[in-house]
Amino acid sequence: MSIEDTNKIDMIGILKNNESVISLGITDHLSWNDEINNHLFLLQEKINSYLRFIESGEIYESFPTDKGKVDFLIEIFFQYKIPQE
Description:
By secondary structure, the chain is of the alpha+beta class. The protein contains two helices and three strands. It has a three-stranded mixed beta sheet, with helices on one face. Strand 1 (11-14) and strand 2 (21-28) form a beta hairpin. The chain starts with 10 loop residues before the first strand and ends in a 7-residue tail after the last strand. 11% of the residues are buried. The mean pLDDT is 92. It holds the Pfam family DUF6572.
């Protein structure tokens, strides 16, 4: 999965050093050399999808053993360095 699959969760797990936190990961393999605005839009859509997954409670339907955990961490893993502009 990738940033282009805006309705998919790329990674999900529990932090080893804090088992009360559900960690969700976004993988971004796109280069920043081309359409930066489109890249940012895809990233925004992916983050919004993750927020809907959490806020709707769907996360607990998919992972019922995590019900009751209310701390979430969304991490983005970029393949390419983010431009300063």
